[in-house]
Automatic annotation (TrEMBL):
Record GO biological process: cell wall organization; peptidoglycan biosynthetic process; proteolysis; regulation of cell shape
Binding-site list for substrate: 216
Ranges of Basic and acidic residues composition bias in the record: 280-298
Keywords recorded for this protein, A-Z: Carboxypeptidase, Cell shape, Cell wall biogenesis/degradation, Hydrolase, Peptidoglycan synthesis, Protease, Signal
Region (Disordered): 278-298, 332-354
Descriptive protein name: D-alanyl-D-alanine carboxypeptidase
Pfam families documented for this protein: Peptidase_S11
Limits of the Peptidase S11 D-alanyl-D-alanine carboxypeptidase A N-terminal domain: 25-247
Keyword Signal: yes
Record-level Gene Ontology MF annotations: serine-type D-Ala-D-Ala carboxypeptidase activity
Lineage, broadest ranks: Bacteria, Pseudomonadati, Pseudomonadota, Alphaproteobacteria, Hyphomicrobiales
InterPro entries: Beta-lactam/transpept-like, Peptidase_S11, Peptidase_S11_N
The organism of origin for this protein: Labrys okinawensis
Length: 354
């Protein structure tokens, strides 16, 4: 009996240590916004810093769209994977240094396929270097009023310095939606096929929630599952941002739930607009690796499943089971030969000993 008592006590202590009472470190930022007037319909920790993961690629797309509009590049501009681009982690494209595609195809690969190597190649093509492109990303963030964001790479791979907030990502998503409606096809595509290799989008909302128009998902062990999503019904557009969900199921179901509630009129506008929300610029993003990919994962996921059971076996789902037809984009690449290494000249050759 005594052994059972202490075992139970340890279990309770573990649960409290991991999950509650609700702590700032357990926050998973949520934001629901009416796009037309940017009225905030619902918000939780919307200004809390978070690792953006691949939602970073929304800014990569925005900067690229601006460059196209300014005439610096076009959708036909060749994008060549450099050695640096080809070395990016977590590759899904199957491409190699020298692989080449049009900028239009590259945008499909980056936005739908979330390819990290192609994102780097796009940055180098548009701005000449990763460093110059990152500067353009941060310049754009300042112009858009993204006061809680800092970008250090174009693909969202982990870097402690890279951060954003749900508020800022909503601003970015709305800016893309309003300023570049001609490019919505990039965000509505569910898969790309690169030289016969299929790369699926991780955004199940595209095919399983009526009216979703994109935009981008993201995942790192340090961030959990993020999504910036846009849906449209009856001429009304709603933006939902979810950051730090434990699983793709939780992320998709929670986003679908907020969309459902917003379109049903169950989320009433408050007294704040999106730009009026404050960012917390003093804190750093929480590192979720222990909970997402470490020793706490099983217990943390069990707790989150209990809190958000939608879509689990025997539970109601906010997603359609039938699924809409997928939009797939075909990409064919070609090889751009790398320039030969310069030969040593007499000026650089070592002098012979006399």
């Amino acid at each position: 009996m005594n052994r059972m008592f202490w075992k139970s006590l340890r279990c309770v202590a573990l649960i409290l240590a991991l999950h509650g009472p609700a702590r700032a470190s357990d926050a998973t930022p949520i934001l629901v916004v009416d796009v037309a007037d940017q009225q905030v319909l619902y918000a939780e920790e919307a200004g809390r810093p978070w690792f953006p993961a691949s939602t970073t690629k929304l800014m990569t797309a925005f900067v690229t769209f601006e460059a196209i509009r300014a005439g610096r590049v076009s959708l036909d501009t060749p994008v060549v994977l450099s050695e640096h681009a080809a070395k990016q982690k977590f590759l899904d494209s199957g491409l190699h240094a020298g692989s080449t595609m049009t900028l239009e195809d590259a945008l499909f690969a980056v936005i739908s396929g979330s390819t990290n190597d192609v994102a780097m190649a796009v940055a180098e093509t548009v701005a000449g270097s990763e460093e110059a492109f990152v500067k353009a990303m941060n310049d754009a963030a300042r112009r858009l009023g993204m006061t809680g964001s800092r970008f250090v790479n174009p693909n969202g791979l982990f870097d402690r310095r890279q951060k954003s907030t749900a508020r800022d990502m909503a601003l970015l998503g709305i800016a893309i939606t309003r300023q570049f409606p001609e490019y919505r096809r990039f965000f509505e595509t569910s898969a790309v096929v690169i030289d016969g290799k299929t790369v699926e989008s991780h955004n199940a909302l595209l095919t399983r929630f009526d009216g979703v128009r994109g935009l981008k998902t993201g995942y790192l062990c340090a961030s959990g599952n993020n999504v910036v999503a846009l849906a449209e019904r009856g001429g009304r557009q709603v933006m939902v941002v979810v950051m730090g969900a434990t699983t793709e199921r939780e992320r998709n179901e929670r986003a679908a739930m907020y969309f459902t509630q917003a379109f049903a009129g169950e989320l009433s506008p408050g007294d704040k607009t999106l730009s009026a929300l404050a960012n917390d610029t003093k804190r750093s993003p929480p590192d979720m690796r222990a909970k997402q990919c470490g020793e706490q994962t099983r217990d943390y996921e069990r707790m989150r499943d209990a809190a958000y059971p939608m879509g689990l076996p025997g539970q109601t789902s906010y997603l359609s089971q039938a699924g809409a037809a997928k939009k797939v984009h075909q990409i064919t690449t070609w090889l751009t030969p790398r320039p030969p290494k310069p030969e040593k000249t007499s000026a650089t050759a070592k002098p012979k000993r006399g």
